[in-house]
Amino acid sequence: MSQYQAPLRDMKFHIDEVLDFPTHYAGFAQGQEASPDIVTAILESAAQFAEQVLAPLDKVGDAVGCQWHDGEVTTPPGFKDAYAEYIANGWTTLSMPAELGGQGLPASLSGFCMEIMCTANHAWTMYPGLSMGGIQTIAAHAEEPLKQLYLPSLIAGKWSATMCLTEAHCGSDLGLLRTRATPTADGSYRITGSKIFISSGEHDLTDNIVHIVLARLPDAPPGIKGISLFLVPKFMVTESGKCGSRNTVRCGSIEHKMGIHGNATCVINFDDAVGYLISPPNKGMSAMFTFINESRMGVAQQALAQIEVSHQNALRYAHDRVQFRGTVRSNPQAPADPIIVHPDIRRMLFTQKAFAEGGRALSYFLAMQTDLERYSDDAQVRANADALLSLLTPVAKGFLSEVAMEATSYGIQIFGGHGYVREWGQEQHFRDARITSIYEGTSGIQGLDLLGRKILASGGQALAPFVMLVSGYCQQNASGIHTGAVQKQLQEWTTLTAELGKKAMQNPDEVNAAAYDYLMYSGYTVLAWIWAQAGEVASAALQHNPSAADAEFYRGKIATARFYFERLLPRTMALASSMRSGVSNLPEFPPL
């Protein structure tokens, strides 16, 4: 059966030693209460809740799933009690503003805790996780009366939120959506239409569900420029902030999915339902990107979570499972050795470890940029953080979700036939990870966003803040063991980008043909910078006589950094060759 232990030592390595969050937190008001002792205590509390409450429910959620009856959804046994405990312990308020009932701690700290909980139970964590995006969207774009009416109960966790984008006929092409919004005399709107694939769209955990809905006004122009954003509650809300009569919003059905069975993925029908405009008319997509980008980072975290838990179980099994004799015997008297002595097993384990720990560092770096973008008093710092988030969010979401499938597949492979059997839990991690490369924009769409909408559309300027950051690191660490490889990779990345830009000017389809490979190339390049830092910090720490346990930890970092540069980063050569081959080998009508 799958087991999980929060990787607090690795988390603290990135928080304290690599990224220096203590100094980061000291630089703005919301972070000054987040002392190292406070951060440690909060992470340990999150780990206890995740390991003791959420992790045991992961298998239950997968086996039982959600149940739909006459428009109502019942979550798996134990989910509702776990959510009540989550609310009682104040987890929803951790990073919310004090004036709205929150604890006023940094957003990044809440993200660290959500990583722990998501790794313990991906499906359960989606219920409160989606509410975070809803809160940010309402706070950023709604008029003050809507904020005052809805935010307190959402922040307290009494209500939850969803994002309602997709419709059956249009999938990711939201310019084709048909849900309509008709204005009424009292300033509200009547929303009519049907949305599909709505995660957490109906459940029994909260008193109300607040849907954030894309729809068209009667005079809206066609396409993506004619979309507006609305707030549509499941229950109407009285002036005092209480739930009133039922709105005409119903769950038509739930999907029977490959994975994340414990989370209800719903068809939501709006039948002349009362809604309220959030965005300016016809500016809904730009407002919804507040939610989408929050969710993309959440999906990157979900992918990281599945890599981590699959690796933990595979590593444990590799130490216990005895098969074949190694070249160097672990026990010469035994008929066989633990499978971890075999190089191919270590190849798979190191790949998982490199993606899990590298992905964690990338996630934390982006969490730091989120703090700076939200809290810094310096406009230039905020702008730089926003630029880095814009560039690296599709990389984190797309790259980590893709390598999560590879890593969790290795988790099955290391178990052999047992990995394919449900009772061991490894196949669930693969199934749960699979959705991450699809929702919030497929990997191809992330690649198009990165290469086309951001980098090429900006004439390459979108790359500049990150290139300057990495170049500065290389100058400051010129003698680092992996610095030369990072510099070389960075130069090749910018050269390749320029080549693709020239080709795209001749044929725009070159962007689509290269987008996925470019996304993956970018991910490997970003993780090279991350692993160079981790290796240097670990090497320096070994010079200060650490404890035996810490010395082993640091040696593991150094070994994984070497593995990454010698075994994984070379994949970029094949990706570059594929991109340079162009669109011509993708004929419109290939022979069958």
How would you describe what is shown here?
A hairpin with a 5-residue loop joins strand 4 and strand 5. With 592 residues, the chain is α+β, with helices and mostly antiparallel strands. The protein has a domain of 125 residues. The radius of gyration is 24 Å and the shape is globular. The strands form three sheets. Strands 3, 4, 5, 6, 7, 10 and 11 form a seven-stranded mixed beta sheet that branches. A two-stranded antiparallel ribbon has the order 1-2. It has a two-stranded antiparallel ribbon with strand order 8-9. The mean pLDDT is 95. It is 57% helix and 11% strand. Helix 9 crosses helix 15, helix 10 packs antiparallel against helix 12 and helix 13 runs antiparallel to helix 14.
- Regions with little confidence, pLDDT below 50 for 5+ residues: none
Order of H and E elements? HHHEEHHHHEEEEEEEEEHHHHHHHHHH
Averaging pLDDT over every residue, what do you get?
A: 95
Instruction: Please state the oligomeric state of the protein chains shown.
Output: single chain
| Envelope shape | globular
The number of helices is 17
- By DSSP, the count of extended strands is 11
Give the termini distance in whole angstroms: 44 Å
Q: What is Rg?
A: 24 Å
Derived from helix and strand composition plus strand pairing, the structural class reads alpha+beta
Largest sheet, if any?
7 strands, mixed
Q: How large is the share of residues in beta strands? A: 5-15%
Helix content: 55-70%
